[in-house]
Write a structure and sequence with these properties.
Distance between the termini: 46 Å
Number of domains: 2
Helix content: 55-70%
Shape: elongated
Number of helices: 8
Oligomer: single chain
Order of helices and strands: HHHHHHHH
Structural class: mainly alpha
Radius of gyration: 22 Å
Strand content: under 5%
Largest sheet: none
């Protein structure tokens, strides 16, 4: 129990950012032996992004006194969230620029990259542009959208 309590920060971070449960195929005694010998899961094999991997690694340091405080972790995560939102905003701008240039894949991506609270007409306009330019995924999604709008498919 002592080992698990000291690694709560690590477990929460790994489960949240890695979207996986570490050590799921190991018994508690095997986990204890593994961790106490200084070993950890390999984050790269689970698709954890580098910036989050560094946060997780700091939270799983063997010496609990060297681990960052939970409040620090929350601050870092909030900063990371802000950076991600800025990247998403920039991506939407780039998709729009490329979509307006007539690239069907960008038209589709821009339609689906619009913020949740967006103008539905803009979504339909870019989806239609992509469909008209031969993007089969856009054609499929446009049929689904229209079918939902006319009540053929229940939401």
């Amino acid at each position: 129990m002592f080992l698990i309590l000291h690694n709560v920060r690590y477990l929460v971070l790994v489960c949240y950012f890695g979207n996986w449960l570490p050590y799921r195929d190991m018994k508690i005694s095997e986990i204890q032996k593994h961790v106490l010998s200084g070993k950890r899961e390999h984050l790269s094999s689970y698709g954890v992004e580098e910036e989050y991997g560094n946060i997780i690694k700091a939270a799983w340091l063997s010496d609990p006194s060297l681990r960052p405080e939970l409040s620090y972790l929350f601050d870092v995560l909030e900063f990371q969230k802000t950076q991600i939102e800025l990247k998403k905003f920039k991506a939407v701008e780039l998709y729009k620029e490329t979509a307006d240039g007539g690239v069907p894949d960008a038209q589709l991506r821009h339609a689906f990259a619009l913020p949740r609270k967006f103008n539905v007409n803009e979504f339909v306009r870019y989806l239609t542009m992509a469909a008209d330019n031969g993007n089969t995924a856009a054609q499929f999604n446009l049929v689904i959208y229209i079918s939902m709008e006319i009540g053929y498919i229940k939401r």
